[in-house]
Amino acid sequence: MDSKYTSNHAASDLQSEDPELTKLLDIVEKDINSLVSIRLSEERGTSRHQQLIERITRNILGRPSTLYTIIIITALWIVYNLFCPLIGLKRLDPPPFSDIQGVIGFIALLTTTAVLITQNRQARMDDQRTHLDLELSLLIDRKVSKLIALLEELRRDIPHVQDRHDPQAEIMQENADPAQVLSSFQQNYEDVVNEG
Hints:
Keywords: Membrane, Transmembrane, Transmembrane helix. This protein is an all-alpha fold. Among the domains are: 53-92, no CATH class; 96-155. It is built from seven helices and no strands. Helix 1 packs across helix 2 and helix 3 (48-61) crosses helix 5 (98-157). The longest helix is centred in the middle third of the chain and has 60 residues, at 98-157. The two termini are 61 Å apart.
């Protein structure tokens, strides 16, 4: 029996038994669809030229077979040009093989440019994801701080629970200040660098 079918069948059995699990799976599916939508939006905003260069970089230049092909062609070129006079043929590129060097230099220039173009877009996308991660982290920090504050308030209000002072809970109710965290990090980093 197919393992994918078995896992899907088991998940649907669990869903039918537990409506809370169904809600959770719906939330996860919604999150996945949101991430796919963001990715598709990024892809739609990319020009055809950019997509073509990225496809070439990913599907042709970024494969081991391309490296092996370049090595084999270069080796065959050199071997042919070294041994062709021995069998009476004319050399296409006498040593020091300036023609093949020019071709390899041109291919290297094109490859480097294509990789840089691809990396620039990837870096922009990584920056966007990093900013999104930071925003979500700050939002989560605010939510957790609010939850701790609400729990502390609830603890104080319930008559059966002994009221006590909790300094950690007080500190955790405060939202993190990104500027202060960054400043502390930079100061600590500079201190370590200066010591070492």
